[in-house]
Write a structure and sequence with these properties.
By secondary structure, the protein is of the alpha+beta class. It is 36% helix and 24% strand. Strands 1, 2, 3, 4 and 5 form a 5-stranded antiparallel β-sheet that branches. The longest helix is centred in the last third of the chain and has 30 residues. The N and C termini lie far apart (77 Å). The model has no long low-confidence stretch (mean pLDDT 80).
């Protein structure tokens, strides 16, 4: 029986889920009023077996109440190296969003039919 449970919930995942929260950021609201997103630092184990994880608590925009219970809150935990990759991925996504917003602003302020592309180096834009 324990083997079946261990296959469903590997020890690392269980330790991270059951570990204590040592720091948490402010909850951020998603697009809907009931959705949340929160980063948390969790500690599992003790002594030389102590591990720290970056955890994410999520109540998604599309969550549905089942029966009388509230919508499901999901948790996912990451080791430090993965957390660093996530940070880099998020920075890339933010940069892409900012570039799209800048382009949208340029298009909104440009008269119809006017070129919006920058001039090549050394060329006179006129």
């Amino acid at each position: 029986m324990w083997r079946a449970i261990e296959k469903l919930f590997p020890l690392k995942a269980m330790a991270a889920l059951l570990g204590g929260v040592v720091f948490e950021c402010q909850e951020r609201q998603g697009l809907t009023s009931g959705s949340i997103f929160q980063w948390r630092v969790k500690r599992a184990g003790s002594g030389v077996d102590r591990r720290l994880y970056l955890g994410l608590k999520v109540l998604a925009d599309g969550s549905v109440r089942l029966g009388g219970a509230g919508p499901p809150t999901c948790y996912i935990n990451f080791v430090l190296e993965t957390a660093r990759r996530i940070r880099d991925d998020l920075d890339e996504c933010i940069a892409a969003l900012e570039a799209e917003e800048r382009q949208k602003a340029i298009e909104a302020t440009s008269p119809e039919g006017t070129e919006t592309a920058p001039a090549a180096d050394g060329e006179d834009p006129a």
